[in-house]
Write the structure tokens for this entry.
Amino acid sequence: MGKTANDFVINIATANGTGSQSSNLILMHSMFEMGVPVSGKNLFPSNISGLPTWYIIRASDAGYQAPGDKTDIQVIMNKNTWMEDLEKVESGTIIVYNEDVKLPVERDDCILLGMPMTKMARGINPKLARLMSNMYYVGALAQLLEIEQSAIASAVSMQFKGKEKAIDLNMRAISEGRFYAEENWGFECPLSVKARDKDPDTFLIDGNEATALGAIYGGINMLSWYPITPSSSVAESIIGWLPKLRDDGHGGSTCAVIQSEDELAAAGMVVGAGWAGGRGMTCTSGPGVSLMSEFIGLSYFSEVPGVIWDVNRAGPSTGLPTRTQQGDLSMLYEVSHGDTQHIVLIPGTVDECFEYGWRAFDYAERYQTMVFGFSDLDLGMNRWTTSGFQYPDEDLDRGKVIHTQEEMDAIANYGRYRDVDGDGIPYRTLPGSGLDPILYRGTGHDEDGAYSEDPQVYEDMMGRLRRKIDGAREHLPAPVIREEEMKEVGIVFYGSMENTIVEIDDILEATGLSVSTCRVRALPIHPEVEAFIGRHDINIVLEMNRDGQLYGILRREIPIDLVPKLHSVAYSDGLPPRARVYADKILKTLKEVAA
């Protein structure tokens, strides 16, 4: 019987802080170097070190990127989850384990492959044995799966770039692990990695770094941040890239970076930068947005541009800080007290993380408001394939800014908050221009910016703000619609579910159900989303939260005669979406609708 090529799932169970991340990335990158579609999911604890961590690698010629329904190869290194990891795997699983842990391995229905990894690592470097033992399972898996040694060497060189001693030590450990597996196991693995044609322009990058690069190319002038998982690497990536991409030619940078004392201060700095005419941004997660809400309201009502990136983790409260979710959508759309409505950009790929990284600033200045980027831990902290980013080929959109007295004189009856064009967007001036008034007010105000508590003035002002944000609908990213022919059932979804939807579609099709899909990419809802819903008798709104937040937003915003066409499939357990789980829930919902 021939081997199954490029269609398997590896689950690696280790402990946080043992250096296993390097080993796991080397495995994934080696397959990527061979042109194999591969993805990795890092399930790590919310402490510094010691607690269990799992890394799931999926190879799939079909391009599937979800964790997969079952584990084909289980690597067991962590004594604290040893028995749990053993019990969870299905019959027939290949189990690779560290014999030096000295715990029982009792699964007669599985293939058991042990290796004294710690002892072998001590033979190379006793001080680093705990870290280097992980490289032995890299070698073992390379042997089992026939991963090319040249691909392994390339991945090791990339992981330890410029550290020749580390490269030599780890390559030796991998080679020893490979040799041990070949000489001692005598097992012909039914799975293999087979090289595919690789686009030389493709590379792996996580969503947070892509967002950071997009912000830099979008002209960010000020980054304020307060560390919080899983958004910190957005800021860290901006800081890391600034010397190379934003050097002012005199040893300085064209972007100020401030690590603030808390999230409130970070948001205030964004408002200050926007008032001064700069492009200010901060990155955070749900708990940080909660704390920033008063400054967000100030930005909305005084009409100061700014950008906040929310990389969603599982809430509420501290929740599951290192797990993923789409639980912040409703909050971002209406965050702050009173009547507010915000522009939310929702990337589903690393390419869109980059694109929205720069477009967010354009939208913020065009509409003079706070704009949110909405990612999540799965998209933000895991690595994904891209063929390269589409760089901005147009000038920065600074919106309605008056620079000269002549420009101001050309506007009849200028007022800071007066709508003279009918689109709800007033004109503004910037400090240093010598023009008056440089006025932004967070209290009640009239069209000239003067304080007012007049009921009609307030109603008119709030109506204009609503008209301004509503007017963005057609200009925001349109949904991605896959609709080759008219189908009875449509699936509406958003964000990182993009990386699972193709597999969900294939599972549904295998049951005889063919569907169309519509990926929402921004709030407020684009008109094409409403049109998609209207074309289908049944629409499943698919999302990773408990309460069906997009479902609720759609019910409020689409015409009432379309509401009965909507049905919610909302589920969240903190893990990246598994295609089978969501496909089964869709089928169950459709059965209930039919009944």
Remarks:
- The first strand starts at residue 4 and ends at 5.
